[in-house]
Amino acid sequence: xxxTRLADPHFERESQKYEQPLPxxxxxxxxxxxxxxxxxxxxxxxxxxxxxxxxxxxxxxxRAMERDGQLIRNRRDAYLLPDKAxxxxxxxxxxxxxxxxxxxxxxxxxxFIGARDMREVLHGDRAIVRIxxxxxxxxxxxxxxxxxxxxxKRVVGRVLNEHGVMxxxxxxxxLAQDILIAPGxxxxxxxQVVTVELVEQPTKYAQPIxxxxxxxxxxxxxxxxxxxxxxxxxxxxxxxxxxKAETRKLPLKVRKKDxxxxxxxxALPLVTIDGETAKDFDDAVYCERQGRGYRLVVAxxxxxxxxxxxxxLDQDAYDRGNSVYFPRxxxxxxxxxxxxxxxxxxxxxxxxxxxxxMSISMTGDIKAYRFYPAVIWSHARLTYTKVAAALxxxxxxxxxxxxxxxxxxxxxxxxxxxxxKARAKRGAIDFETTxxxxxxxxxxxxxxxxxxxxxxxxxxxxxxxxxxxxxxxDFLAKREHPxxxxxxxxxxxxxxxxxxxxLAEFGLGLGGGDEPRASDYAKLLEKVKDRPDAQLLQTVMLxxxxxxxxxxxxxxxxxxxxxxxxxxxxPIRRYPDLLVHRGIKAALAGEQYRPGNWDDIGLHxxxxxxxxxxxTRDVVAFLKxxxxxxxxxxxxxxxxSAVVPFGLFVALDDIFIEGLLxxxxxxxxxxxxxxxxxAMLGERTGKQFRLSDRxxxxxxxxxxxxxKIDFRLVEGPLPAARPAQxxxxxxxxxxxxxxxxxxxxxxxxxxxxxxxxxxPTEKPAPSRRKSAARAEPVESRTSTPAARSAxxxxxxxxxRG
Length: 801
Prior knowledge:
Strand order of the largest sheet: 4-5-6-8-7
Shape: globular
């Protein structure tokens, strides 16, 4: 090997990977950088001393680097570095109006891409662009130089017949190009929903072409909105044949050999407490007095015993990342035999569990804890309603029914009060929100939307789960075992500055200086809770917070005011919890669990929860539009839930549905958007519409094709007191809100969605089986536009916290 080749700084690494190593990618880039000019293939091969028999392999390496955007070739077929040519790599984000943006890999400002250049790419593609100038709003504008990677292989949409030409209009409005149908494939009828496989990607001069591979049915068919959402967001909904085979081999009940090295807790009166419609039970709890404090036992289904790392079931669970809870349908992370059977802590049967056994003082401090595998026997399947009736409403019938368990439930309640005080002392943030629940008719459509009341039984379970999660993170951190932490970083300087500027208008301030803590937020919330504008202030405070995510880098959890926090309590429905279980088991055995690159796994699990949120939001938006389509012309009162550059979003009282009041319908004046004040201001009249203002509106349009609702202003702002704002918890993500944007035309602009806020108090969306964060009550994200309207960037497709 020549001296030139031996000078490769990564020669040893390449030698370990290949019998005849080529120059490393890094070395190729170094040579190009040193020469400082574009180099044709022969010149580059000569510079790197590539031998004749290596030329073909070297050419393949360069083409792979080209595909990954590390190199590009100019018109003279010479290789050059993208950075040297002022070329920028990133992912394309399309807009329904046809233009788009490049979200840069280097984290720089987004680059605007005009409609002409967007014709050769689709939303999600990776591309290289060259800055060509600035657009009319002063943003950098770019031209597509090369498409690196195509993101769309299959697309779901509706078939249209336009003058005899059959096309598919994508359901994802960010895919702004219609798809021509190629000959062959299935033969749908116009108006049907189909899945089309792209056989030709778009170019500068031609539309994408696809072949229909699946006909889903008519748009109004029951459940079609879910079928569309599954395919639109690439949600896995069929288990692989290998995973099904593994599932068939699993037993139907706990076997004698499963008892080995497990503690017997079958005599301990553990109970599950869930919602009325729950079918999978992750956790069981028990509490007793222990000296001057309490012993709290939280038993969590031992999924890791049945789902082996690296197996087919594990791979399917990883791909899904989490269960997805649609209205009236669940896409589980694990097959039903596990999620509703072996791994569900059903009553009166033996179940395997991982147990967090804690000793908690009268001040709410966890003095000691231990983790161990056990066999449990749930003594009862209780509901929040029944527990609340017995403990808080002193219902005689409920107390009689639960007489044998009542002493333990009362201990749980006493401990809950202790933990609440500790929570307040710690300074965790607790925003007040209202959940909703959909009631369906026999045709699967919404008959009614009602507020869901959270009682202290929900909060009791939340605090128990928080304690177990904190112990899990502490256990792994003390043993220096890598883990996926649930992190929630402090607010950014920019968001804090805007929040303080807004609060100053009300004579209020946020403590903590440049680095406020959760307790500073909590103090301010307590201070304003009785004000008539409390909802407005709370919403703006919430919007200043970041979004929670999974990461191996423990930066703490700002909203919960914890230095370390993990998810341990829901391994049936969240993959990170399953990883934490495996980590705890490995640490107990004095080993380390290594599933792969922890950073990549964290990003993937964060993505899957955002993806599930997006899909759930789409389904809910369709159902709400369907519910409202027969009420066009009716008048409603509601509150402004978001102020955006093109108008106001109004959340209606009682029915908890939102729609757009476009800026052109605010009155005969020029209205200007004031981002800092969350207001729309009239230039001539001085009239002001602000977040949380009360309005009377008329429903003028429901567009089922785009799932959007439009209002017309009847009267307002009204002086009436503001009711509690509806909020669908646990589903805000940087995604395009399904009910936002003017419906003027099939492909008009949708609201640019902001960076989603994280809102302390993890709760699932109304359609889900569990009310609160079985794992982290303080970490939900509201899905109302009020929590997502800030920010100027276009929406980002990405789910739950």
